[in-house]
Amino acid sequence: MLRIEALTKTYGDVRAVDDVTLEVPRGQLVGVIGRSGAGKSTLLRMVNRLSEPSAGRIGFEDADVTALRGAALRRWRARCAMIFQQFNLVGRLDVLTNALLGRLNDQGFVASMTARFTGAERADAIRALDRLDMAQTALQRADTLSGGQQQRVAIARALMQQPDILLADEPIASLDPRSASIVMDALRRINREDGLTVVCNLHTLDTARTYCDRVVGMMQGRLVFDGAPRELDDATVKRIYGVEAEEALSETVTSTQLSAAS
Amino acid sequence: MGWATAGPGPRSPAYAMASTASTFDGDPVATFERHYAEVATQRRRRTLLFWAIFVVILGVAIDVSTFFPERLAEGLPKIGGYLYDTLPVLRPEHLFADVETAGSLAYWYFNLPKYAGLLFTTINMALFSTLLGAIGALLLCFAASRNLAPNWWIFTLSRRFLEFCRAVPEVVFALIFVYAFGIGPAAGVLAIAIHSAGALGKLFSEVNENVDHGALDGVRAAGGNWFEEMRYGVLPQVWPNFLSYIWMRLEINIRASSIIGFVGGGGIGQELHYVISFNYYEEVSAIVILIVLTVTCTDLISERLRHRAIGRENLM
């Protein structure tokens, strides 16, 4: 169970995330929707402490995540893997090494500085890549892959962390519709098969409706909706998206047109 | 009547609104022209001031360095005279005769085996000091990058240390090390290595400051520590640039290591200093030509290698 209590992040006078309280039980696939600038990214980045909260608390099971420092903090980051809109792979390294980076937290200093990974770790990496149908690219440089392929490698890296939670920050926002559905299918499959909690920022409504167990709506840093996808009525959508509502609702404009292959 | 002229005329409501909201009173063009003239005058004044200061500084510099035309005219022939003295006496008929015959190439380069040995030492000094300097720079450059340093203290300390390393000339370090470790290549290597670490460290850290932070975020989110962020998030991105700078430094260090001998740092420079001091004129030219050839060759080779290294895929 991930517990977020009264979490707030301020940049000067701007409250990017404003008093958000949220509980996510194990195994749920939660979509966070909202306009750009609504605070979705900041919220996710605070959960794995890439951003420091200004106020509030994050708890996971019995641990107080907000109090973690040093090695314990890095251990927590490994436990809640993150994938990014821009994939954030190391472009000049091969796909296999990128996947192996998911194990950095377990590595000793010399082993990680000399990039010495064990045979067992390599085997795990290939298995993770294979789950995402990317094993055949293992020795290719990551920056030679297409966006969708890079995102799948990023998911394989996340799996290598053997995480309890997977945070996905706009994972399909820079992808074409077909790649987007492959990536979303993979996320849901992992969510179902491994019982992995997934919290996923999405800017389009139809993706959230198609894939998520639960949808959380954010507006100007505040939580304005929390419920099942079917509870999202037009009035709520208009409230969340404001002037962008038409865009968010129009299935043709919003990139995806996903057909879930459940 | 052009659209730019002021006065009453048909205006769209949007245009009228924009014009009342703007700071221009009356005719916008005239207001702009007035403002433009002001700015231009200001700029002209600044340029004039700049040149005035420049001329004054130039004058002071010439005076201090006694860079006077008559002095130059007086001194130039002396340079020619010295160069003429160093020229070997070569006789075409004996050019390829043995070492014993005056006027042959072999006679001029009678000491070639010794020079070759010293040149070999010099090149090795350059290689080793570049390697040491590169390692030093690599260890410090991440802490000395504004965007990567873990905190202000470490950043400032490593920056200032690198500055110190490159601000002190190699010759000064060499003098100190010759005093400490005695005359010989060890002192020269250490002196050049420290200076190289300072120079390379600055260049490296500037490359680091332009790094794309996406990969860094990725490594951090996977639970990597600071060293792992540098190793995997930064190094693969900057390595080709680093390599290119290291090669360039090697070229510089081959020149530097032939000079460092003058203060007792070993290698061919020490021999050059010796023959200059004792006015062995022909040997001066023999050694200088060898050094020039060596530097040119390494420049050519290293340029080729550098381009190959940068163009290669899968460097890391």
What does the model show?
The complex is a heterodimer of chains A (262) and B (316). Chain A is α/β, with parallel strands linked by helices and 262 residues long. Chain A has one domain (2-261): 3-Layer(aba) Sandwich (Rossmann fold). Helix content of chain A is 36%, strand content 23%. Chain A contains 10 helices and 10 strands. In chain A, the strands form 2 sheets. Chain A has a 6-stranded mixed sheet, with helices on both faces. A 4-stranded antiparallel sheet of chain A has the order 2-1-4-5, with helices on one face. In chain A, strand 9 (214-219) and strand 10 form a beta hairpin. In chain A, helix 5 (119-131) packs across helix 6 (147-160). The two termini of chain A are 25 Å apart. Mean pLDDT of chain A is 88; it is low at 251-257. Chain B is mainly α. Chain B folds into 2 domains: 13-65; 112-315, MetI-like (MetI-like fold, Orthogonal Bundle), CATH 1.10.3720.10. Chain B is built from 12 helices and no strands. Chain B has helices at 13-21, 28-64, 69-86, 105-108, 112-141, 152-167, 170-181, 185-208, 213-221, 226-259, 268-277, 281-311. In chain B, helix 5 (112-141) packs parallel to helix 8 (185-208) and helix 7 crosses helix 8. In chain B, 31% of the residues are buried. Classes of the chains: A alpha/beta (262), B mainly alpha (316). At the A-B interface, helix 2, helix 4 and helix 6 of A face helix 9 and helix 10 of B.
Provide a quick synopsis of the model.
The complex is a heterodimer of chains A (262) and B (316). Chain A is α/β, with parallel strands linked by helices and 262 residues long.
